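Bug #77: duplicate submission created two jobs. Keeping one. Sequence:
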Amino acid sequence: MKFTIILTTCILILLGSIGGYIATFLSTPLPWMLGSLAATAFFCLAKPQAIPSDYKFPMLLRMAFVALIGVMIGAKINAELFVHAQIAIFSLLGLTVFVPLAFYTNYLLFRRLGGYETQTAFFCAAPGGLLESITMGEARGADVSLVTTQQFMRIILVVATVPALISLWIGAPVGSAGGVSLSDTGEMSMSGIGASLIAAGAGLALARKIKLPAGQMTGPLLIAGTISLSDLVTLHLTEAMLITAQIVIGASLGSRFATITRDMLIKAIAMSVLSVGSMLILAIIIIVTLTTVTQVGFDVLFISFMPGGLIEMSLIALSLGAHPALVTLHHIFRILLTVACMGYFNRVLTETQEKGT
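Kept job's structure:
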């Protein structure tokens, strides 16, 4: 690895750490990740010449910390998830309707109102699967900078808006702003930490072997979930490890802004407001319908349907005591369904273009 890449990466992670630290005092949702993202993105926008033209954040470094987040989520899986899954059949069906409708609506917005090229509009439209939309978009010749920006804006707007709306709903801060910790509060053990690291590595290997969608997270999540259900060992990740993971992931995302112009960013924000607004309206229509046929409350469904970060949505659910296992199930399902829709729609789009030529 070149010295310039190592130096640039270290600088971005340092900036991300400062941004995350500041964000904790501002009580922002998911402060270490969003603070890191904001700080590094601002630096890359303000000083793009400081980033080497051929720089790419080290994939292995990012992958390792995404895997830790996957382990954290998987460690929270227990028998309660399956109990709640039995009463969630209607809401999961509603989510099955929501994802493709949101995908198509977003595509029309980005293509017709935004004027984005077809491939770029398509991957910007995905209501989930950030890493997959970027990876697949790059392979299909989409404008990766634009796809990355739009996917960032989706997550940032949803993650920032939902806690605020829920806070207004119940009259108190929720999620990270409410002081919820990502790590376990129980006693740490070296065996638990070691098992978590092994689960992360095994999950990545499994995902690569069987080509799991969103594999960097779902592979470790499945391994950790299996271990958690077996009760053979209790998985543990320290607060410092999870904070570092958020900083690294935020910095890796923020580094993408080095190729984004201010005009592009302004347009992306405007399009994201339209996109997230349309998804919010669509979700509320489906949720109101679901409340007449399911025992799940409106607030739980609202958190479950919002296409933001899985981790922050789960934290909000924990803050509310709003069936966190059920909310996690919905967001895992949303991500997997989005990736599946992305693959299907991409094949249809490719076939249509081939017939046109």
